[in-house]
Design a protein that fits this description.
The complex is a heterodimer of chains A (124) and B (570). In chain A, 40% of the residues lie in helices and 19% in strands. Chain A is of the alpha/beta class. A five-stranded parallel beta sheet of chain A has the order 2-1-3-4-5, with helices on both faces. Chain B is of the alpha+beta class and 570 residues long. Chain B folds into four domains: 108 residues, Beta-Lactamase; 109 residues, Beta-Lactamase (2-Layer Sandwich), CATH 3.30.450.20; 102 residues, PAS domain (Beta-Lactamase); 160 residues, Histidine kinase-like ATPase, C-terminal domain (Heat Shock Protein 90, 2-Layer Sandwich), CATH 3.30.565. Chain B is built from 17 helices and 22 strands. In chain B, strands 2-1-5-4-3 form a five-stranded antiparallel beta sheet, with helices on both faces. Chain B has a five-stranded antiparallel beta sheet with strand order 7-6-10-9-8, with helices on both faces. Chain B has a five-stranded antiparallel beta sheet with strand order 12-11-15-14-13. In chain B, strand 19 and strand 20 form a beta hairpin. In chain B, helix 13 packs antiparallel against helix 14 and helix 14 packs parallel to helix 15. The chains are: A alpha/beta (124), B alpha+beta (570). At the A-B interface, helix 1 of A face helix 12 and helix 17 of B.
């Protein structure tokens, strides 16, 4: 299998992350790898709207947003067949097999680690 | 002659009609006459008249009959004896001289009176007295004595001396009241007792009594009226057992039981007793008031009704396990009657064993652990929250490093922001809660850079609390404004002034927002300042808007920066 990072080129990746600095760090990393970033978005409401209107290849979801958890976004992505991963500081992911089966990156996330994980989502 | 014959007939008739066995002997101790009753004693027949008495076979052991008769003939004084027959009958034998009408001695008259019945009564009486004596003298802890009708002590037995300490010489003649305590005497308990016995035959006597040495002895007994055959009062018989020691043991036991009861009913745990299969035999008042169950409702398996339906299986399985483990330890929810809440309880129980190590019952407690469980759950949430925060913080720090040093800025531009982050974190941990005051954040940031310039700085506004997730970005924004002012603005020269003020406003929806104004004045603006737009500005403009839904207006006025920050409050 080829380098997953190469798979990012020209792909559209949604970032849902409420921490500004972290969100923009991920945005910067993905842009450097040739991906097009949708967002970043700090809350679920805006994210759901974007999923409706945008073409997406993958998504990165922070679990614990300012006012809510991200699971409504996750469900919408599943329904639309868009692969996603969790990028979280949480120790636990809600106990549902659909969520548990998704890749999970624990913060702090290294740039290389992030790019490979998203690349793999797109490859498969 | 005819008269003599008549007289003889009278005598004969008399002798035959009398039941008293009588035999007449002449001076030679020959039988001259006898009454029919005497044939019970001597085998006399009519032809024996004139034969010496010594020749007559006798049913009684009276060896001295002839010598007694001779002595009577000699001394003319009567002889009396008690004789026992072979069949066990007793006779009183009297030997009297036989005086003829002209007063000379013609022999002896011997009478036999059967005293068997009297003898038996006498023996029975003697035995009864002996038994009474033995009982009285051997009843060591039973004081026994009698008093006369005026309740003066008449008979004082050794057992009474042993119990009360008074000797018979000292006690006899004294009033029975000397044995009563002063307080009982004041209440006339002594008189009432005797009065009751006089009226009703007997009276209970259960009370503390006084000993000779002043100490007290507890007596359980009765006072009984003694009456003569004619019904008149002869006195009183007082019998009482010294139960002082038993009473002391009883009292100690009762005290011990009361202490145990106080303990069981005083502790906050719900206490109960059960058999080895968890069937309750007793529940403490705490259980009843907590669950609202009556005692009868909780007994047997009734207590399960107060246990949450989902936990009942667990509770019963725990009892099966307890039989194997020798102890019970299980947690289940118990319904609190006062508000219907199901609260978690930790139930523990151990078997109570008797001296021979057999389990008699199980004694158990149920302890409210609901608060502890909630605390535990809350702690878990806090630990998760802490994880979340510290992981995010490292992410933020990494991002800062990438954006500054990673893109060619001096290391100082990173460390100075790291310090600002640290100050914000320090305020969060100091406050001990999830909030920090706006004034504290502003003051900490200004103090870090411009202590000596304080007279040119105005900071004022109401008390507004920021939530933990707002603190970090807000502190970074204030930091960027401050360092900018230190490098290029109001805090650089001697002439500049800074005013930081804030207020609470409401938006269209009625939600509260913080509105903060940062106004610099008297600043000599340099050309490069006007055109500069670095990472600091980005942080102020973007970060607050992105993460906190804030709105910033940043403008460079004629004599300095004017910035307005508006933030929704959570």
């Amino acid at each position: 299998m080829s380098d997953p990072i190469l798979a990012l080129s020209g792909r559209r990746v949604l970032i849902v992350e409420d921490e500004y600095l972290i969100a923009h760090d991920m945005e910067y990393s993905l842009q450097q790898a040739g991906a097009e970033v949708v967002g970043p978005i700090p809350d679920a409401q805006q994210a759901l709207a974007l999923i409706k209107t945008s073409k997406l290849d993958a998504a990165i979801l922070d679990v614990n947003l300012r006012k809510e958890e991200v699971y409504s976004v996750a469900d919408k992505l599943s329904a639309s067949g868009i692969p996603y991963l969790f990028a979280t500081g949480e120790v636990q992911i809600a106990d549902r097999s659909d969520y548990r089966s998704r890749p999970k990156l624990e913060k702090p996330i290294l740039e290389d680690e992030l790019l490979r994980a998203v690349g793999k989502l797109i490859q498969t | 002659m005819q008269e003599l014959g008549r007289s003889n007939s009278d005598l004969k008739n008399f002798l035959e009609s009398t039941q008293i066995a009588t035999v007449f002997l002449d001076n030679e101790l020959r039988v001259t006459n006898y009454t029919p009753a005497v044939t019970e004693i001597f085998h006399l027949i009519e032809t024996d008249t004139g034969r010496p008495i010594g020749h007559i076979k006798s049913r009684i052991a009276y060896e001295d009959l002839q010598s007694d008769a001779r002595r009577v003939l000699r001394t003319l004084a009567a002889v009396e004896r008690e004789i026992e027959s072979a069949t066990g009958s007793h006779y009183m034998v009297r030997v009297l001289p036989y005086r003829s009408v002209d007063n000379f001695i013609a022999g002896v008259v011997i009478t036999f009176v059967d005293i068997t019945a009297r003898k038996r009564v006498e023996t029975a009486l003697r035995e009864s007295q002996e038994r009474f004596r033995l009982v009285v003298e051997n009843a060591q802890d039973h004081a026994i004595f009698t008093t006369d009708p005026e309740d003066r002590i008449a008979d004082w037995y050794p057992s009474a001396e042993a119990v009360f300490g008074w000797s018979a010489e000292e006690a006899v003649g004294q009033s029975g009241s000397i044995l009563f305590t002063p307080e009982d005497r004041r209440q006339h308990a002594d008189e009432k007792e005797v009065e009751t016995a006089r009226r009703e035959g007997s009276a209970p006597n259960v009370r503390w009594h006084l000993r000779k040495d002043g100490s007290r002895v507890f007596i359980e007994g009765t006072t009984t009226a003694l009456r003569q055959a004619d019904g008149s009062l002869r006195g009183f018989l007082k019998i009482g057992q010294d139960t002082t020691n038993r009473r002391k043991i009883d009292e100690a036991l009762r005290a011990s039981e009361m202490r145990q009861r106080a303990l069981i009913e005083g502790i906050p745990q719900l206490v109960w007793r059960a058999d080895e299969e968890g069937r309750w035999t007793w529940a403490s008042p705490q259980w009843m008031s907590y669950t609202g169950q009556a005692l009868e409702e909780s007994l047997e398996s009734g207590w399960l009704e107060a246990v949450h339906p989902e936990d009942r299986d667990v509770a019963m399985q725990a009892w099966e396990q307890a039989g194997r483990d020798g102890f019970l330890s299980v947690e289940y929810r118990v319904r609190r009657a006062s508000d219907g809440a199901w609260l978690w309880h930790h139930t523990r129980s151990l078997p109570v064993r008797n001296i021979s190590d057999r389990t008699v019952e199980w004694l158990g407690t149920s302890t409210d652990v609901d608060a502890i469980r909630q605390l535990h759950a809350r702690q878990e949430i806090l630990v998760n929250e802490l994880q979340h925060r510290s992981r995010n913080l490292i992410g933020v720090v990494t991002s800062l490093a990438t954006r500054t040093v990673g893109r060619g800025s001096p290391v100082e531009s990173f460390t100075i922001r790291l310090k600002a982050l640290s100050r914000a974190q320090a305020l969060l941990s100091q406050s001990g809660s999830d909030t920090v005051e706006v004034r504290a954040l502003v003051s900490a940031e200004l103090a870090a850079h411009a202590v000596e310039a304080s007279t040119r700085i105005t900071v004022s506004g109401p008390k507004v609390l920021l939530a933990s997730e707002q603190v970090q970005n807000f502190a970074l924004a204030v930091h960027e404004l401050t360092t900018n002012a230190v490098k290029y603005g109001a805090l650089k020269g001697e002439s500049g002034r800074l005013s930081v003020t804030w207020e609470l406003i409401s938006d269209e929806a009625g939600s509260e927002r913080l509105a903060l104004k940062w106004i610099e004045s008297g600043v000599d603006l340099q050309p490069e300042t006007v055109t500069r737009r670095g990472y600091g500005r980005e942080l102020i403009d973007q970060a607050l808007a992105y993460a906190l839904g804030g709105r910033t207006d940043y403008a460079l006025g004629a004599d300095g920066v004017r910035c307005r920050i508006e933030l929704p409050l959570v």
